[in-house]
Structures are given as structure tokens and as C-alpha cells.
Specification:
5 strands, alpha+beta, Arc Repressor Mutant, subunit A, single chain
Length: 173
């Protein structure tokens, strides 16, 4: 059995015994990514992690706000009435429900968000962006958008940006 540079086996045991270097699922699709696919995947992860880390550090340093908190404020600012059910907010920011609850707790203590019951659902709770939260978001947006320019947009030309948008839409329609 050969081993790829990633530590992932290039050859996979097949149900009938032996190995198939081009291992395929019952659907006929390859199971194991090629070297090129893995290199692209790792490059994508490295780029995402590098940019996210830089944006997070800038927001923390300049605005004392985490990237996740910034994302919550953005999602609320764009919602009708600057208000979302907690479940909708969790889906929008890609955090677990418990993660969003803890984050909203902190934002509520800071006066940036308030909670209220959903009128037509006795168990439903919504988070709403306060005026202080909107003001804080406006200030943090200067830092964040400058970071997007510096760590992302300036490194790409128009064709890169177009291709990346097209690829991203395929990956996350």
C-alpha cells in the first residue's frame, strides 16, 4: 500500500480483497482524493485559517471584539427589525446553538444585544441588535473591512475574485 504525502492511503482495500489505487464507491466516484485535490484542499484550509486569524487578531486588538461576535452583530444588523430567532442566528453564523447562546449572553451583558420572547411562540427567543450594538458594529466594520482589503482582496485580481466567487458558490450554494 502506498502512502500519499498527506499520510492518507492512495490505495484502498476493496470489498473483494486487494487494493484499487483508483478506489471507487458504489456510485463509481473516486473515494480517495488525488494529490492535486488534496493539495488544493489543504491550500484552501491554510488560506482560510491564515486570513481568519489575521481578521480575528485585528478585531480583538483594535475593537476588543471577536470575529464571531462581529458576525453575530452583522447578521442581526441585516435582519428585518435587526432581530433574529436564536435558532436562525445559530444557523446564520454557523455556531452551535449553545455557542450562540453563550456569545449572545456576553453581548447582552455588554449592552450590544438584547433578548426577547417571540410573540407567536411561547418558547421562542430572539436576539435583537441594540443601538449601542449598531454603533459598535459601525466602528468595528472599519477595522474588519480594512482587513478584508489587506489580507484578501489586495492579493487577488479581478479574474481571481470572479473565479473564487464561482467556486465558492459551487461549494456553498
Amino acid at each position: 500500500m502506498s502512502v500519499a504525502f498527506t499520510g492518507v492511503s492512495e490505495s484502498v482495500d476493496t470489498p473483494g480483497g486487494g487494493t484499487d489505487g483508483r478506489a471507487r464507491a458504489a456510485t463509481g466516484r473516486r473515494v480517495v482524493p488525488t494529490h492535486a485535490e488534496l493539495a488544493s484542499w489543504r491550500s484552501f484550509l491554510r488560506a482560510h485559517a491564515t486570513i481568519t486569524k489575521a481578521l480575528e487578531a485585528e478585531l480583538e486588538t483594535e475593537q476588543q471584539l471577536s470575529l464571531a461576535a462581529y458576525d453575530v452583530l452583522v447578521q442581526l444588523s441585516e435582519a428585518p427589525g435587526r432581530r433574529l430567532r436564536m435558532t436562525e442566528l445559530a444557523d446564520a453564523v454557523l455556531l452551535s446553538r449553545s455557542g450562540v447562546t453563550r456569545l449572545v449572553d456576553r453581548l447582552e451583558r455588554s449592552g450590544l444585544v438584547c433578548r426577547s420572547r417571540v410573540a407567536d411562540d411561547g418558547r421562542g427567543v430572539a436576539a435583537e441588535l441594540t443601538e449601542d450594538g449598531l454603533s459598535r458594529l459601525r466602528g468595528a466594520s472599519v477595522t474588519h473591512l480594512r482587513g478584508i482589503r489587506a489580507h484578501f482582496a489586495d492579493a487577488l485580481d479581478e479574474s481571481d475574485l470572479s473565479a473564487l466567487e464561482k467556486i465558492s458558490r459551487k461549494l456553498a450554494p
